[in-house]
């Protein structure tokens, strides 16, 4: 029996990624992410914002660029000691630190500017890391992008999350 950290498999049309979640460091964020996974919320959503040498963001829009209805926002856990390093997964949010809902991003490089800095910068909450399939993230980061429906950096050919499933550590 696997009693380790929970893992989620993101199956995309460009390959799979396995994400190990950091429940101890980011309990609220992990619980929130798992709720969306278990509800099937991410199935059929896209990576809608792709910036090479920065990050790939997904989990909020359909292939038609329609925003999905989310649950209430969660508290920002960016001060948990985890850094926005290459391969980590963090919550996307607005300028309000406590506004994250379903959208997340995978850091394509070490993004020190996104880290929490006490009393200066609320940062972006890292809640896990890609432990298998970083080559998929690299492939996604390399796709051609354009502006669609007023949003920049949208892949020309949709990068679809076919499914998101908890695969171990239950």
Structural commentary:
The mean pLDDT is 96. It is globular and about 40 Å long. The strands form 2 sheets. The protein has an 8-stranded antiparallel β-barrel with strand order 1-2-7-5-6-4-3-10. It starts with 6 loop residues before the first strand and ends with a strand. A hairpin with a 2-residue loop joins strand 1 and strand 2. Helices cover 12% and strands 36% of the residues. By secondary structure, the protein is mainly beta. It has a single domain, classed as Beta Barrel (Cyclophilin), CATH 2.40.100.10.
Strand adjacency order, main sheet: 1-2-7-5-6-4-3-10
Q: What is the count of structural domains?
A: 1
Count of beta strands: 10
Shape: globular
Order of helices and strands: EEHEEEEEHEEE
CATH level 1 name: Mainly Beta
Q: Which oligomeric form is depicted?
A: single chain
CATH architecture: Beta Barrel
Overall mean pLDDT = 96
Helix content: 10-25%
Largest sheet: 8 strands, antiparallel, barrel
How many distinct helices? Answer: 2
CATH superfamily: Cyclophilin-like
Broad structural category: mainly beta
- CATH topology heading: Cyclophilin
Backbone CA Rg: 15 Å
Low-confidence stretches: none
Q: How many angstroms does the end-to-end distance come to?
A: 9 Å
Measured by DSSP, the beta-strand proportion falls in 35-45%
Keywords:
170 residues; mainly beta; two-stranded antiparallel sheet; 10 strands
